[in-house]
Amino acid sequence: MRLIKCCFTLSIIASCFAGVAHASSTSITGHTYYVDCSARMQGNGSSPQTAWNSLAQVNAAVFAPGDIIRLHRGTQCEGAIAPKGSGASGAPIRLTA
Asked: 3-class SS at 94?
């Protein structure tokens, strides 16, 4: 299985979505989910202290408009990230550090 360094990939994705996030004056506030693949215990993703510790957990969730997926800087995750769900005009689903 290939090892992916998410920090570089996320910078590109965040740059691509930056303009979309400000394209509309209306916005929907979603939930923020945290991912830290170096975390020892599996969390529920609701805070940095209870972060998801695998991309499989991200891939199992369905995200809604305005949701943010925050990956811990410097963490290395194995596998591919393929979030499910759909954003909306003015409320994209964002991947950030």
From this structure: strand
**Is the distance from CB of 8 to CB of 75 less than 8 angstroms?**
no
Mean pLDDT over 30-38 rounds to 97
Which segments of the chain does DSSP mark as H helices, in order?
6-21, 55-60
Q: How far is CA 72 from CA 77, 88, 90, in A?
A: 10, 25, 25
Q: Are strands 62-63 and 84-85 parallel, antiparallel or unpaired?
A: parallel
Coil, helix or strand for 82? coil
pTM across the whole model: 0.71
| Residues 60 and 85: beta-carbon distance below 8 Å | no
